[in-house]
Every structure is written in C-alpha cells, then in structure tokens.
User: What shape does this take?
Amino acid sequence: MKISTSSLAALALAGSILATACKPPAAPAPAPGTPSPTPAPEASSAAPDQASSTPAPAPAGTPLALPEVVATVNGQNITREDLEKVFNAAVQASGAQVSDLAPDQQLAGYNQLLQDLILDKLVDEAASKEQVTDADVDAEIAKIKAQFPDAAAFDAQLAQAGMTPEKLRENIRDGLMQSRWMQSQVKPADITPEKAREFYDANPQEFEQPETVKASHILFMVDSEATPEVAAQKEEAAKKAAERASKGEDFTALAKELSEEPGASESGGDLGFFPKDRMVPEFAEAAFVQEVGTVGQPVKTQFGWHVIKVTDKKPAGKVPFDEVQEQITGYLKSQSQREAVQAVLNKLKESAKIETFLPQAS
Assistant: This one.
C-alpha cells in the first residue's frame, strides 16, 4: 500500500511505514513513580471461483490462508503476497505479532487493508500522468530524515520496516503522484468567519470550559520509602524555598535552581492552565484557593513537597468566539477536505470494476 487515500495529503507507503514502523524512536515514557502533580490515567482500549478455496476459520493464533488473488481492480490483480506484506507491516508497527490475533481479528484487518489497496490501485491509475522529478523525491526524503537524530537511526528504522532505499524512492514517487492528482481534484475549502460562527453557535457544549488555574511549582521529591529524617529534610527545604519566593526572588529562577521535577531546569516549573480534576487532590485544592500572584506554603502530595505560585485564573464559562475562531476554521476546512476526498474516491470506485475474494469479517 503506497498511500492512505483518506487524507488530502495522500502519502506513499514510505510515509505510511515511516509514520509507524519506521518512525523516530519516541521519547521514553516516564518511569513509574516519576513525580508530577498530574495523576496517572486510570486503567481501562483471480477469479471468483477462488473464493471457495478459502479455508475454514483457523484456531486462535494461526495465520489465515488466503486465496492467491484477493481482489481484481479493472482487471489488475491484488495478490495474497501484496495483502500479506501490508498486513504484516501493520502488525509489526503496532508492536504485536500475527500469532497474537484471533482469526476474526486477522480477517477484519485483511478486509480493511484490502480496501486501502483497492483505493491505492484506483488512485495510482488515475495519477499515472502526474510528473514528479528526482528533486521532488529528494526533498521528501530529506523531510523524513530530518525527523531522525542521525542517518544511522534512519537507516536502522528503514531496515526494520523491510524497506530498501530504492523501494523508498519508488514509493515516495508514487505517493507524490497520487497526492498531486488528488489535490487537483479537490479544491481548497472556503470557510468564512460566518460559517465558523455558525458552527460555534450550533455547538455551545464544545466550548464550555471549567474553572482553570495557571501555576508554577517547585518540587522536592520524597520517595515512598524515604526515612522520616529524609522526609523532614525535604519539608524544610520546601519551606526555605517558599520563604525565598515570598521575599521577592524570581520564582522561575528558583524552580530551575531547586526543583527536582524532571524538566524543571527548562520549564521553570510552569504547568500552564489546568482544571481542578487534572491534578492530584492536595495540589489542586491548594492551587485553586490561592490568590493570583501569591506563593503558598508547601503542600505535601504522593510525589513530595510542592511550593506553588498561582499566576492566573480563568472562571468557568464559554470560551469566547475570538479565541477559538482559528481552530474552528481549521477544523471545518479539514472536515470539508475529507468529505471532498471521500467523494472523489467514491466516484473512482463507482466507475471501476472491482471483485474481492476474501470472506467478510463477522
């Protein structure tokens, strides 16, 4: 599968794979117990006669056997190998294994990806006359490489995705052709301020916000296994920090100097605006009763001792239209483009001869 045609910016398989299996390594998640006033989330989410050759459902964890040709599109075959390749890449990108999937899960995945391959064939055919230069391909590859810390990391992820540099170039070229063709079919949406306002007025519940507080903090971490002596030392350090801040020392500078929260040396302890239910109760109760501009007495939470400075507050209510007009306009443009792209794809499918030979998922 070279592209994801559900988006106006239809991308090559390179983009699809590099966005999943071949993406830059994510920043490591905080280790358990990493201090933050924010509580952790709660635990929860061919030919028609070949159809008869599809075997009965296999036992859980057994890869499904597929017909040699899984679909034809305007006389062009989509083979079992084509479908299995994108299916295995998608499973690998998710961090799972085919053996982890029950037969009905495998079948659902195959059917979904087959629809993508069918659309890919149709758009590929329609876009065959679009012109893409080597310089265009080079520019796209440069953008992808820029997401990686170095060339070695890019090459490693490319190999992990089972993609050669030559295949990457081929798929990027195909994807650019498809993208340019799609853009020629879909005109930019014209979202006027009046349309944005109409959406705002018709969806008032989307723009209601609870009371929020903007605050910074200095954290002195206290491990759950800390001795009473260590806990007392941390409390004393927090009291001294609060005293220094109350006497006029710059709070941001103090947070960078004293806070034991990871990242505080860069953020200066700034937490931005937050509603009351986003923070652990002890922290939230203290922050929401403090006056703007004040530094409170140290507050104990499961993470340790916090010195809090409240810098702003917003009452509960409806966000003014002027503050969200840009976001509404962007949302409506994206929605309009998605609908226009889907209309183009539907038209392609309606005018094509398509036969599929996979059983439908139950």
